[in-house]
Amino acid sequence: MSRTRRTFITGAAAFSFAASRAPAFAQQRLTPIRIVVTPVTNYTGLLVARDKGWFEEQGLNVSWSPVAQTAIAVEATYGGSVEFAGGGVLEPMIARGNGLDMMLVVPSARIRPEAPDNSAIVVKASSAIQKPADLAGKRASVGLLNSINHIHFIEWMRRNGGDAKTVQLTEIPFPQMPDALMQDRLDAVWAVEPFFTILKKSGNVRVIGYPYQENIPNMDITAMFAKESWLKANTDAAKRFRDVFTRAQKFMAEAPKADRDDFVSKFTSVRPELVAEMSLPIFVSAFNVQSLRANVELAVGQKLMKSIDVDSMIWKG
After folding, report:
1. What is the pLDDT of residues 200-253, one digit of tens each?
2. Which residue from 47, 190, 274, 313 lies 20 to 30 Å from 201 (Cα-Cα)?
3. CATH number of 119-215
4. pLDDT at residue 28, rounded to an integer
5. pLDDT digits over 6-57, tens only?
6. pTM
7. What whole-number distance in Å separates Cα of residue 140 and Cα of residue 150?
8. What percent of the chain has pLDDT over 90?
């Protein structure tokens, strides 16, 4: 594992998640499902399913832990240390296009249809940067290079008359970006929740773009994925997990805001009053396949992968 990825793991360790464990007497009769997810609200359905007892009803002992970036989640899944992972939709598709047997199982979140999205490129309020082209020669961070954010940043710059190659990009964890921006170590960052709302509430930043919304409107942003070989060997357990998570996703989509915010607060350990102000993603249970194809086209265009048949990568077992 690279030094950069070890750094991201360290950065994520402070982000508290509500991991799940079945009672000791039940663990022998329940099928264990280990999961890693990136530290965002998009996987709150895991907590819903655990707290409502839906996993245990289906004979599953589901536990999860955080990783800072999807690339690490792909490594964990392919290496066999977990059965499922949650992360950006593009990284597992890139892995598939490069020969790894990754499969998309169920979506977890879609971007918001209108601004504000739940992530954005922000600069200090006093900055002279007004548009993407103004980032030329500036210092910025969008997360890991070749991540879904980086790929969309390149496309967003291109669409707006800029060139991402002229920007000095630095890989740092999302929780560290606000301080780096405020301390003038960076000129722009791709802020994600809850840090996006924290920065906006400070009054010290200004949004200069919502790359996801501008590049591929209504795109699926995150999903649960697994190895195709594991899915084939454990079809029954995989179906049970997918069915329960889908049920939890529908709860998150339909629940009153107060109930949804309460689960998000518990899952992320973010204060309830802050969650109430956050721009949450759209919780979904069916893939927007057209948006997945559009993401593949971006990655192929940037020479990160060979083209793939997206439909064949969505697990239908």
Report:
1. 999 999 999 999 999 999 999 999 999 999 999 999 999 999 999 999 999 999
2. 47
3. 3.40.190.10
4. 56
5. 433 434 443 444 454 444 434 458 999 999 998 889 999 999 999 999 999 9
6. 0.88
7. 11
8. 86
The correct CATH number of 3-111+218-313 out of 3.40.1190.10, 3.40.50.880, 3.30.365.10, 3.40.190.10 is: 3.40.190.10
- Confidence bin at 103 (pLDDT 50/70/90): very high
Rounded Cα–Cα distance for residues 274 and 278 (Å): 6
Domain locations in the chain as residue ranges: 3-111+218-313, 119-215
Neighbours of 201 (CB within 10 A): 11
Q: Do 3-111+218-313 and 119-215 agree at the fold level?
A: yes
